[in-house]
Amino acid sequence: MKFNDLFLSTLGLVVVASAQRQVLVTYPNDTPPSVVEQAKSAILATGGKITEEFSLIKSFAATVSSDIIDTLNALSTSHKPIVEDDHTVTIQQQAPLEH
């Protein structure tokens, strides 16, 4: 493999990886388990990853491509997910670090 081919292949992987984002996907409590499983399957089929599943609520965390969000919304007309960026939330303001 030539250096140029290797460089372009690596560049393509970096572009794909940078299009990924961390999200929380939450469904209404009356959503059938099959709808949630269908959403997880769609994420996995597009190269995403389910990073955590929650049992008290119909929700999971995932690493997804940005274009899967529209797909998740289209899977069920009566059980729409709430998809939000996953980030750290704190209840206390942290003091800035002193140098």
Terminal residue distance: 48 Å
Tell me the fraction of residues in β-strands, as a range: 15-25%
Helix content: 25-40%
Spatial strand sequence of the major β-sheet = 2-3-1-4
> How many β-strands, per DSSP?
4
Order of helices and strands: HEHEEHE
State the helix count: 3
What global shape is seen?
A: globular
Instruction: Give the biggest beta sheet.
Output: 4 strands, antiparallel
Q: What structural category do the secondary elements indicate?
A: alpha+beta
Q: Can you give the mean pLDDT? A: 83
- Radius of gyration (Å): 18 Å
Oligomer: single chain
What are the low-pLDDT stretches, counting only 5+ consecutive residues below 50?
13-18
